[in-house]
Write a structure and sequence with these properties.
The chain is α+β, with helices and mostly antiparallel strands. The protein has a domain of about 100 residues. The termini are far apart.
Length: about 180
């Protein structure tokens, strides 16, 4: 009887071991297939989303370049009297481009005020939607002198160009601008 019990125990142990090995192989194989499929699906989704994001940014960069060209043309056409034109244009841009949370335009103060002769100072105009209507704020900054540590003055080279910066807080005036 001891032999029968031992043989049955060995048989059960062998069957159990075989079952565990086969089940592990099947589960692991399914795991690898599922993992590969998940990776492929994720890669396809990421590719799709990256193209969508790229298209979104390209559209907004084109919009920003158009705004820059429009402002350059306004400066040439209206000279120092361009602010009312720019305000109206920014209002229209806010209405026509709801995907933009705000539009910020920075002018050298000497470009908008003919009596200002100092090489520093800025006028910042920010346009955004508030309660379904365009709102424009104007602030002057750095009228007492330049803060050389700011990105704006580090990148300024005296020529008009479009500049994209990350949203940041102006260190001297605590004005959020982009």
């Amino acid at each position: 009887m001891k032999n029968n019990f031992r043989n049955i125990a060995i048989l059960i142990f062998s069957l159990l071991l075989t079952y565990i090995i086969v089940a592990t192989y099947l589960v692991y194989d399914d795991y690898k297939v599922s993992l590969n499929q998940t990776i492929k699906t994720s890669e396809m989704y990421c590719q799709y989303k990256s193209e969508e994001i790229s298209s979104y940014f390209n559209t907004n960069v084109q919009t920003a370049n158009t705004i820059g060209s429009m402002l350059a043309a306004a400066r040439e056409k209206y000279g120092y009297d361009l602010i009312p034109y720019v305000e109206q244009s920014l209002q229209n841009l806010c209405i026509e481009n709801p995907q933009l949370s705000s539009i910020t335009v920075t002018w050298e103060f000497s470009a908008v005020c003919k009596t200002w002769s100092r090489p520093y100072g800025r006028l910042i105009m920010k346009a955004y939607m508030l309660d379904g209507r365009p709102k424009i704020t104007k602030d002057t900054v750095d009228l007492e002198g330049e803060y050389v540590s700011e990105n704006y003055y580090q990148l300024k080279n005296g020529s008009m160009h479009t500049l994209f910066t990350s949203p940041e807080l102006n260190t001297s005036e605590y004005i959020s601008h982009t």
